[in-house]
Each structure stands twice: as C-alpha cells, then as structure tokens.
Amino acid sequence: MALLFGAVNLSPEEVFSAITYSNNNTEHIAIIWDIRLPRASLAMLAGAHFAIAGVILQTVIRNPLSDPSVIGANGGASLAIVICLLLGDYIQAHFFPEQQQIISLSWLPAIALVGALSATSFVLKLSWKSQLQTSQLALNGVAVGATLNALVMWCVLAWGGNRTETSIIWLAGSLYARDFTHVGLLLPWTLVALGAFFMLHKRLNVMQLDAVSASSLGLNVKLWRFIFIFIATCFCASALAVTGPLGFIGLIVPHIARTLLKGTAFATRLKHISLLSLLVGAALTLAADIVSRTLIAPLEIPTGTLTTLIGIPILLVILRKQG
C-alpha cells in the first residue's frame, strides 16, 4: 500500500518493475527508491521506537497513560534540536557564510538524546526524594515537558527566521523529504536499543509487580527503573530526531497490543506484548503516513497530526474502559 499510492498512483506491476529495475522508467524508479521505500521504512522504524518506549514507561511508571512526554523526553529532545539548528544557522550566517550547513544531519540523534536525557535526568532528580514513586515521577514529567514545549515554540517563533516553517512542520511530526540517509541514522539505534531491551526484558517483567513484591525477588527497583527509563529515552530521542514527535503512538500502541493478546497465554508476558507492540506501532505509523500523503495529494498533512487524530478516540475508549 505504501508503495502503490501517493501523488502518483502506481500499479503492483509498476512497483515490482521499479524495485527490480526491470524497466527503464526512471520516474517510477525514483518514486519508489528515493521517496516511498525509504519513507515507509522510516515510518515503521519510528513507530516501533515510540511503541517500545511506551511499553517500557507504562511498565516502569506503572501508569497506563504514560508515554515519552511524561518523563520530559519529547520536550527535551525537541528543545535541544531546535536550539542547535537555530544556533547552527546563526553561526553559519555570521562566521561561515560560504558553508551550506554547520550542523550535520548525522548529529541529530545524539543531540536529541542529550536533550532528552537532560530533561529526563531533571525529572528524576525532582522525583529522587520520593524514591522515584510513580505518581510523583509522572507529575514532575508532565510539568517539565509542558515547560520545555513552551520554550521550543518560543525559540521557533522568536528566532526561527527561515527555519520557522520547517521547524513547525518537524514539531508536528513529519516524514516529508526523508530518504535512506535518515533510515541509516535510525537503524543502528534500533539495533542497539532493541538488543539491550530484549537482553533485560525479564527484569522489566518483574517490574510489572508492585515495588515491594519486586524487591522481595531481589530486584533493585530504583536502579532498574532508572536503567529502563534511560533505554526508553534512547528509543524516543533517536526516532524523534528524524521524524519529529509522533503523538499518541507510545501511548496507545501498548494498549492495542494488550487488547489483542487478552485471553491468551501471552497476555501478561512482556516479551510478547513488546513484540506485538513493535508490529502494531510500525503498522499504525505506516498507515498514518500513507493517509497523510494521499488524503489531499499532492499536498501533505504532517504524519504526527494523523497519529494524534487516530490516537484521541482510542485514548477515549481506553479511559472509558478504565473508568
């Protein structure tokens, strides 16, 4: 579906011919290899990142409405990237006018991670005296995240200049003009973070219990809560750096996965919940991106706007079931 539809619709035969280079239609080859295939790949990777971050945070914070924004990660990563891009533009314009770009694209995931970790560390520091109690952690995270998001918009509107429009589109969550360079930036983070997560998932499984029960099994709850929040931050920041924030993916996907597994032997097994969340997050983000670029083609709606519109009714259903 992602390869078939867009501003130019292609038949399955045309897509296959373009993928295999079995014809000389350079336009179709460019559409598939330069636009749709990398964009679809990036959508699935980013969706998986946000989904796994949501699984981790909802388990660690023990709050079913947790996602990366709850620990300030989204706001911290966004602020770091916006400041670096605007500062890079200023330095380039005043000191290196002959250069086109000061901030390399390859730096963005690391910049986002620094910002996200800084914000998350501040939230953890605020919550440290309460022994990282989940309610206090969530409240502090929401407050810090809201403050950081306000600072991001202030920076963009006050000093955005030529980057104001592109910054706002990025902050809305967009896959526009993404190529295999962006996929290559995100893929190593995917492999490392997923490897760490699945090596440690048994400890996260224990953290589904309350703190007293988990401690009685020999788990240092405070330490492992910190470690898993760090892993979730890595997932979130690396994806956010290349796509912008994709609203509600980290929040609703774990609930969808648990609902699909309800009544099965895997319903409480975090490994299976996580694997299904990976697939659902990838599929949901890909579907949102397809709609975003075909609904009013050739114009586009930011993918993050679509994920939010999809997520709001699902969130209301979740709240109604819990109420």
From TrEMBL:
Membrane topology: Multi-pass membrane protein
Matches recorded under CDD domains: TM_ABC_iron-siderophores_like
Keywords linked to the UniProt accession: Cell membrane, Membrane, Transmembrane, Transmembrane helix, Transport
One annotated GO molecular function: transmembrane transporter activity
Species this chain originates from: Pseudoalteromonas phenolica
Designated name of the protein: Iron ABC transporter permease
An example Gene Ontology biological process: siderophore-iron import into cell
Transmembrane segments: 42-61, 73-91, 103-124, 136-159, 180-200, 226-253, 273-295, 301-319
GO CC terms in record: plasma membrane
Coiled coil: none
